[in-house]
């Protein structure tokens, strides 16, 4: 293998995909948790599923909350493994966090809010400003994650390394 970039070890390059995947899973879990805690529990703006009774909405919130913690904990186990192997690459991992959280929020704001209509951000208000801010924040995180991802890919190319997709 060619001389590695000073800031990138061979093991980090080998596990670049796992760094990205762990970060993305953590980003999804974190965004889902914050959505659940802030908009569902603290503000009471909506439930995960608002097309039925309040009881059904609360049950759906419970499943949503469980999903968010499952994703977060799984990502942290992956992160612990990366750290144990001395393979954690913070910038690559953070690109995954940004892509995961932004992707989750954009999916939520477009597919769940508009296409499936299972809930809105808020009811009995002019929804457009809420939708615009929600999706703008999501796109900002996606842009930030993409920028970090491209920078880490450039580091990989400069180091003469290619991530192993099986990792």
Automatic annotation (TrEMBL):
Protein name from the UniProt record: Membrane protein
A Pfam family: DUF2243
Transmembrane segments: 20-43, 63-81, 93-112, 132-150
Keywords per UniProt: Membrane, Transmembrane, Transmembrane helix
Record bears the keyword Transmembrane: yes
Domain of life: Bacteria
InterPro entries: DUF2243_membrane
Taxonomic source organism: Bacillus infantis NRRL B-14911
């Amino acid at each position: 293998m060619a001389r590695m970039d000073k800031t990138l070890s061979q093991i980090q390059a080998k596990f670049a995909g796992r760094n990205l995947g762990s970060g993305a899973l953590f980003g999804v879990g974190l965004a889902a948790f914050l959505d659940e805690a802030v908009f569902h529990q603290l503000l009471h703006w909506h439930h995960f599923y608002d097309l039925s009774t309040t009881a059904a909405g609360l049950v759906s919130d419970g499943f949503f909350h469980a999903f968010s913690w499952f994703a977060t904990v799984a990502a942290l186990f992956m992160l612990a493994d990366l750290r144990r192997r001395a393979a954690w690459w913070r910038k690559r991992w953070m690109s995954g966090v940004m892509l995961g959280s932004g992707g989750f929020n954009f999916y939520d704001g477009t597919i769940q809010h508009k296409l499936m209509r299972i809930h809105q951000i808020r009811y009995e208000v002019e929804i457009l400003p809420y939708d615009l801010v929600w999706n703008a924040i999501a796109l900002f995180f996606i842009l930030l994650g993409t920028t970090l991802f491209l920078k880490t890919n450039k580091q990989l190319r400069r180091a003469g390394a290619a991530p192993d997709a099986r990792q």
